[in-house]
Specification:
About 30% of the residues lie in helices and about 20% in strands. By secondary structure, it is an alpha+beta fold. It folds into three domains: about 90 residues, Uridine Diphospho-n-acetylenolpyruvylglucosamine Reductase, domain 2; about 120 residues, Uridine Diphospho-n-acetylenolpyruvylglucosamine Reductase, domain 3 (2-Layer Sandwich), CATH 3.30.465.10; about 80 residues, 2-Layer Sandwich (Alpha-Beta Plaits). Helix 8 crosses helix 10. It is globular, with a radius of gyration of 23 Å. The termini are far apart.
Length: about 300
């Protein structure tokens, strides 16, 4: 399909409803939005638009659809899979101005947010109210929730708590036609019609533009403990993982670290962890919960299993 290049007529249309903070044509902006953290990939948009309301997103999508101008939604551009790259040029539509936590509903364990909220900012906000949003991608300090949703991001805590899709209840989405829809309902069980909410999760912006997200939350665990367990071979470390699960323990996080990774970590941090020369790998194991005695027992059991 042949796409249209941005013209002066198109610019006039965008200027008719976007403010000065919403339209960028300078070389620096075009360069910034030509890449994410995917190695060696760059695709340059013709223009960068930064809408600040669902209505503005709707106008952009409707117009560009009618004019066959490609639109690529993007967030913080921290992804490693090229999901926000404008491979066809056209409009790179940044959602960074959608950065409000609209509501944290403590009674119903839900939160409504905009897609430009940073993951860690959201986690901190709900934790202040004793609630927990578990998905914790490595980029949680900079990545947007909308991008996490578009990529179905996870992290170490996915082991026990699942990934982004497991916490999405409902979405406000602008379709390519400009129509605005809600994909579901703000309830845990909704068996009415197609599951459009989960269809959107992981779709990398190809089906529509997410403008509001309703998340499910859970009570925040009050305690956690971490074990760093050494192994003389990587094979033994990997075998120990399944042994922990067979023992009936589900850690909140479990990470494998080979010797080189540990050496580099110690080299560039102030950590002082003595490691014997014959140690070739570690497992970093975290358990969490609300009873410290139970957690200590879990740690003892994990230690026993890994010593076998």
């Amino acid at each position: 399909m042949e796409f249209k290049k941005i013209s002066s007529v198109d610019l006039d249309f965008f200027h008719s409803f976007l403010d000065d903070k919403g339209i960028f044509l300078d070389d620096e902006s075009i360069h910034d939005y030509a890449h994410d953290e995917t190695e060696d990939l760059k695709y340059y948009p013709d223009i960068v638009l930064k809408p600040s309301s669902t209505d503005e997103v709707s106008k952009i999508m409707k117009y560009c659809n009618e004019q066959t101008i490609p639109v690529t939604p993007c967030g913080a551009r921290t992804g490693l899979s090229g999901g926000s790259l404008p491979v066809c040029g056209g409009v790179a539509m940044s959602m960074e101005r959608f950065n409000n936590i609209i509501e944290i509903d403590e009674r119903n364990l839900q939160a409504t947010v905009e897609p430009g909220v940073i993951n860690q900012v959201f986690k901190d906000a709900v934790q202040e109210k004793g609630l927990f949003y578990p998905p914790d991608p490595a980029s949680k300090g900079s990545s947007f929730l909308g991008g996490n949703l578009a990529e179905n991001s996870g992290g170490p805590k996915a082991l026990k708590y699942g990934v982004t899709k497991d916490y999405v209840l409902n979405l406000e989405v602008v379709l390519p036609s400009g129509d605005i829809i809600w994909t579901g309902a703000n309830v845990l069980k909704n068996s009415t019609g197609y599951n459009l909410t989960q269809l959107m999760v992981g779709s990398e912006g190809t089906l529509g533009v997410i403008t509001k997200i309703v998340f499910k939350l859970i009570p925040h665990p009050t305690h956690d403990l971490t074990l760093l367990v050494p192994f003389r071979s990587a094979e033994k470390a990997c075998e120990a993982v399944s042994a922990v699960f067979r023992a009936g323990i589900t850690p909140s996080a479990l990470e494998f670290m080979e010797r080189d990774a540990i050496d580099w970590t110690l080299k560039f941090t102030e950590m002082n962890v003595p490691i014997n020369e014959d140690i070739q790998a570690h497992l970093l194991v975290e358990v969490d919960g609300n009873d410290m005695d139970t957690l200590f027992k879990d740690c003892e059991k994990i230690t026993e299993v890994m010593e076998q």
